[in-house]
Amino acid sequence: MSGGPKPRITTDDILEFYAENTDRCEPFDAPEIADHFACHRNTARNKLEDLVFLGELESKQIGSRKVYWRPCPERETTE
Q1: What's the domain of life for this entry (predicted)?
Q2: What's the pTM?
């Protein structure tokens, strides 16, 4: 058994994870983020939802799964 509490993840940790990914705009779901940070998926989901609220991430429900991604200005269309 490991000693001590698990380190807490922050919204900045999650933003850094997205920024360091090869495709900065790739969508991830809460279980993927939880696996990366070794935290509970509810913790990951709460942080992801905070980032959506702050306008840092976007999200979409796809069936039973919700995915989150960084807005990609280079992919936006202008009229």
Answers
A1: Archaea
A2: 0.82
